[in-house]
Design a protein that fits this description.
By secondary structure, this protein is α/β, with parallel strands linked by helices. It is built from 10 helices and 10 strands. The strands form 2 sheets. Strands 6-7-8-3-9-10 form a 6-stranded mixed β-sheet, sandwiched between helices. It is globular and about 55 Å long.
Length: 266
């Protein structure tokens, strides 16, 4: 299904992001080519696509981290494409970006990593900062590790600390770039649960870029397939399962190994 054939908004849901005619070129290559879609308030939209299809680039357009060549990215009616860095700043405070690497600062401990956005955006006492950090770490199941350095953490723990840092400002939107990349099946399942529980508990709007179909099915309210710079399909999982689009079928019918097979192969 082309971007011009978007599904009607379910249950009259409110549009949070409205992306219209988005284009992003690198030399002669149009990575995003007249891309249009909506993200509804409180939903989790999962974006699938082959490597190099522009999934992460699409994610960075939603908070202005990458500059579009044409089109509009409307956040509650405000076009992010037209804003300066200074004008983007207050809007970015309402969003959090979960990078694939976790992007922790290696030279400071977990407490200071999670506290970093609090110190950047708020004037809080040290006691208030410690309380907020402790609450965020408890939410991701990592209470009591404030004094540890990132080098002492497993890959899964680093992802969860990064998520705690993302959530410590109580964002309205969380953008996840390959949140389970490189993780074992058990840890991936933990991350999936945290994404879903965060959305349900706090009403967070989530956009998740992933290759992980298990994660996509667990967290996604809607799924989109990015191909050729546009969405070939965007809709609910039930619609995706019924679709006869060959590219979407190829994606969904790739056999996913079981957790046991993943572990045995490791």
């Amino acid at each position: 299904m082309s971007s011009s054939e978007r599904q009607p908004h379910p249950n009259g849901a409110e549009t949070l992001f409205a992306v219209r005619g988005l284009c992003r070129r690198f030399g002669d290559r149009a990575v995003l080519d007249d891309l249009s879609f909506d993200v509804m308030r409180g939903e989790c939209l999962v974006i699938l696509g082959r490597s190099g299809s522009g999934k992460s680039l699409t994610l960075r357009q939603l908070n202005g981290l990458d500059e579009a060549d044409a089109g509009a990215v409307l956040f509650e009616g405000t076009d992010l494409v037209q804003l300066t860095e200074r004008q983007l700043y207050p809007l970015r405070r309402r969003m959090a970006m979960q990078f694939q690497s976790g992007a922790l600062f290696d030279s400071i401990n977990v407490l200071e990593n999670v506290a970093f956005p609090l110190r950047e955006h708020h004037r809080l006492s040290e006691e208030e900062i410690r309380e907020r950090v402790a609450g965020a770490l408890a939410w991701v199941g990592l209470s009591g590790i404030e004094d540890r350095m990132p080098a002492a953490l497993s890959g899964g723990m680093k992802k969860r600390v990064a998520l705690a840092r993302s959530l410590v400002l109580n964002p309205e939107v969380v953008l996840y770039d390959e949140p389970t990349a490189g993780l074992d099946p058990v840890t991936s399942a933990t991350i999936s649960s945290l994404i879903r529980n965060t959305q349900r508990e706090f009403g967070t709007t989530s956009v998740v870029v992933t290759h992980d179909l298990r994660l996509a099915r667990e967290v996604g309210d809607r799924v989109a397939l990015l191909d050729g710079g546009r969405f070939r399909f965007i809709g609910a999982w039930e619609q995706a399962e019924r679709s006869t689009d060959p590219a979407l079928r190829a994606f969904l019918e790739v056999r996913q190994p079981s957790a046991k097979e993943d572990i045995d192969a490791a």
